[in-house]
């Protein structure tokens, strides 16, 4: 028995064939990750694994370093740039549109994930990774030499076009290069890169902005990307596939995905900020995205190699993981976006204290992810994820039961436990779903998971932000004093200058923020329950893991 097949059975998973919902046959073909024979699932709308040859054994250390560097580029980007906001605005101006420095990047990453996922399966991982790294490098250099805010936003979009390739390809290669029993190790390393970036990024960005200038927050990417390019080009060896397995690229579908995703994300980012949710711009953008979605479905049904193949949603395992991780993206808005506001305005902590509070979740998450393999080897992928999300739902709801004002150690304990629960939830689903498909479908599957999680974050930011502002407005309707702010952002700015407010007004503002964050965590709890329902009602209890031999 091959080691990965043994690992699949040790996980309590089926290692006998395709997803029960696929309704296809099983065909044998060599595994691109290991160079050994494995079974591949096929469906009417899926591409079978092509003929591949590879070198067995663990990947060279240089390749692993290259993957971690590529992941670090994406993980460090926003945390470094966010600390240089005052310096960038002071130099370039354009504060009213500065949010698009981040929104434009996120939009470009999100809408390109499905495209790069399909290109990974069509053209191979290495050319897509090299292209994405090079594009991210070019975008970083252009950002460093931006002459005004419009140019910076445009160049950030270029960066995002490269970032989408990095995110999808690195995660796909992590599954290609390691057998099932070793995948938790590389995934835990990737999670550690994100956690380390959350801790190091703000401090590094602050130091660069203060002592070297804000342009170095982008130039710091040059040596990292250059080294990643060199290592990838020299040391990453992909298996050779039969030319007959490469179908035409579905450029019409790619354009449709760009249009649909771009319109939807633009509506979610600007709604409630640039214009009201029920205004003509919001409704028009949402309607246009719906029309684009219909067009994409029609185009993809006729495409020979669709960018978004139907089997991604027809297979129960992949569909359930997509929905569950979309709910994860939504609930993550509560701790990542609103907890710092709660820490500073309600608890009275400074920026450093709020950062340390956030660090507890980013520390416990990778530790839990590294250890979760000992759980899913006993009870399986789905049940481990169910256990993790059940704990997360309890932890999220417990935040709403904290006294007001809470002591700092109480939300700190919530964040610590939440990180541990989510580490137990996410990694088994990613490892599990990647193990249910062959080489020729892994890129598309991984990209669909990342796409749903990112869209969930955008939807969560819009929905939970609307909940927060509605709560603040309702709580301040009868507050003492005239001219008090009515949105969460304005409340935070008002509390930053407490000398201008009366004690009663300050107390009302803090109470309003506390109530808003409580409601946000209730919304996050509902998202956690939705993830549980997706797993329990849709996902098979035993993931149909494909056997592989080393």
Structure overview:
It is a single chain. This protein is an all-alpha fold and 550 residues long. The chain folds into two domains: 1-51 and 311-550, MFS general substrate transporter like domains (Growth Hormone, Chain: A), CATH 1.20.1250; 55-238, Growth Hormone, Chain: A. It contains 21 helices and four strands. It has helices spanning 3-10, 61-82, 85-92, 100-123, 125-144, 149-177, 183-212, 216-219, 221-235, 251-270, 280-302, 311-314, 316-331, 333-345, 351-371, 373-379, 381-399, 409-434, 439-475, 488-495, 503-537; strands spanning 26-30, 37-41, 52-53, 240-241. The strands form two sheets. Strands 1-2 form a two-stranded antiparallel sheet. The protein has a two-stranded antiparallel ribbon with strand order 3-4. Strand 1 and strand 2 (37-41) form a beta hairpin. Helix 5 runs antiparallel to helix 9, helix 13 (316-331) packs parallel to helix 19 and helix 14 (333-345) packs antiparallel against helix 21 (503-537). The longest helix has 37 residues, at 439-475. The N and C termini lie close together (9 Å).
- What is the number of E strands? 4
Summarize model confidence as the mean pLDDT.
Answer: 80
User: What is the distance, rounded to the nearest whole angstrom, between the alpha carbons of the first and last residues?
Assistant: 9 Å
Shape: globular
- By helix and strand content, what is the structural category? mainly alpha
Assigned CATH class of the largest domain: Mainly Alpha
